[in-house]
Amino acid sequence: MSVTTLTLPHADDFHVHLRQGALMRAVTPLLNGSGVATAYVMPNLKPPVTSTEQALAYKAELQQLAPEVNFLMTLYLSPELTPDEIRKAAKAGIAGVKSYPRGVTTNSDSGIESYTAYYDVFRAMEEVDMVLNLHGEIPSDAEEGVCVMNAEERFLKHLQELHRDFPKLRIVLEHATTKAAVEMVKSLGPTVGCSITVHHLSLIVDDWAGCCHHFCKPVAKYPHDRAALQAVVKEGHPRFLLGTDSAPHPRHAKEASTSVAGVFTTPLVLPYLATILESFGALDRLPQFACQNGRAFYKLPAHPQGSVVTLVKEPVSVPAEYKFMDDEGQERSVVPFMAGKSLTWSIKQH
Amino acid sequence: MSVTTLTLPHADDFHVHLRQGALMRAVTPLLNGSGVATAYVMPNLKPPVTSTEQALAYKAELQQLAPEVNFLMTLYLSPELTPDEIRKAAKAGIAGVKSYPRGVTTNSDSGIESYTAYYDVFRAMEEVDMVLNLHGEIPSDAEEGVCVMNAEERFLKHLQELHRDFPKLRIVLEHATTKAAVEMVKSLGPTVGCSITVHHLSLIVDDWAGCCHHFCKPVAKYPHDRAALQAVVKEGHPRFLLGTDSAPHPRHAKEASTSVAGVFTTPLVLPYLATILESFGALDRLPQFACQNGRAFYKLPAHPQGSVVTLVKEPVSVPAEYKFMDDEGQERSVVPFMAGKSLTWSIKQH
């Protein structure tokens, strides 16, 4: 007997980049066909989203583009962020604060260098029960032996310390890529969660070596790291949840001498996930990983009645690209993950 | 007191890809300005160079393009290669045989899968004192945990076994990228040498993450690996020698969805090397690394009288690209290593 139809609630994507301007207008409506109905939106715009006002204005823009999606907004951790602003943000429904190490990924120039300077902010977040989202890498430093392959593992002690110092603060280690990260998160208390992307369940270092559309931060690592990510999803560990880190960039910025980091998965989140989870025997964990674990960790209400997606085992081709006009009126495109490949699961059109 | 002028013999590049057709005609004459006068030429053409005739015909083409360069030719290890062909090749002055693991790098589809099938060939090579050049990586295999980051380290046991079984066969581990490789080569006997490229003395994994012009095989590894390569050059170990693995590709094949592997260093070999060696305090080892160790290992005669290059500490800009017309008459270009950057050492024009 084989499963050919799956009915599940809409998925929740607890880490997504929806950009701004023309690119935002191009990618945000694609949420509608993806099976995702909750989008936890990253604040690394230019300039970064550092205030409640900015976050709410951004949310209003997104809501217009995808009225049926529930947008959860975040602030960018930076020296301007005060405990007062945290309390204000919480009242306004802002869900979390994202911390970027300086210079590590797209638009992270305003990122943090040390956490201790932010302890007042974290205390306020703990009080109002706001979530701290960590980009878990330390900056590369050849003198110290730090490079993209071990930057996450070397970060983990900071996660451990933050959790020790703020045991009630809900912290999510974002887009984990290593066995070490999986083990560290498992070893910590119930207030520490961990998001895993679609693409890190599929890629290893070989896949981005010479392949710009698979290049992202943190980079995909060793086969045993991918195996650990797959295993923790297969095991159904409740604190590991979907956050795609879908990060669209125009093709010309990827296929270039110096490529920007990011894999674009938004348009087909559930078909990708069903296909990939089935490939390692974890299809039965799809609802838990994509629709339940995150909601529980983020304390969201149960799915509304009728929030249902039907997946059918019918192949769908991933488009070669998604075209759009950029802010200068130039025709551009975004290349999705697995462009031109066939997925074994698709979303049934109602 | 600081060194501002260096006079040394022409360099010997014991690993270079000079391609064929239009690209060959574009890159081979660039040897003239590079400070290199001996070029040990890789046989991975389409089709691969597997016979003495092919190698001699290829050599004649190259010689026409750079009459002052001493071209040393190699054969591609494949099932067609017989002990008789080895003896014939040796008589014709072919210097070595190159072994590629199947599918690991550019035009390696004809590469080997197991060495034992070639033991008769190796025995003949040992008899005629021909050099075996090893691309030292095993093919990636996620099930076995093998990926581009550990493919070289996992290969080293094969080097060890080959040396044990053929202690008199001169073997060069090509383009070493890891501390493990340096240590293994050091631990073996005087018949085992090791080439190091210009770019692996400079790059780590971060440099090719999202940067196609730094992507090559084997990929650059961790900071401690680069440090080990630099240290063995600085130490002046006599069995570590220059082999640039300069591997030109047209820009459009690099800046693409799937990028081909290779870093192009031929036009400025000595200026690159002087600049990079000076950066880690090993400038005094330049003559030994680039002009002596290789000649000694390969048993070449002393440099001819008047084979002299003068390097001066005057900055030179690396060109953004080298234009050429491809075989279809299309204007193309090759982007060199450190394109647009400034080198601190240049070759004095006579």
Automatic annotation (TrEMBL), chains A, B:
Pfam families: Amidohydro_1. Keywords: Hydrolase, Metal-binding, Pyrimidine biosynthesis, Zinc. One of its GO terms (biological process) is 'de novo' UMP biosynthetic process. InterPro entries: Amidohydro-rel (IPR006680), DHOdimr (IPR004721), Dihydroorotase_CS (IPR002195), Metal_Hydrolase (IPR032466). Pathway: Pyrimidine metabolism; UMP biosynthesis via de novo pathway; (S)-dihydroorotate from bicarbonate: step 3/3. It comes from the Eukaryota. This is dihydroorotase. It comes from Powellomyces hirtus.
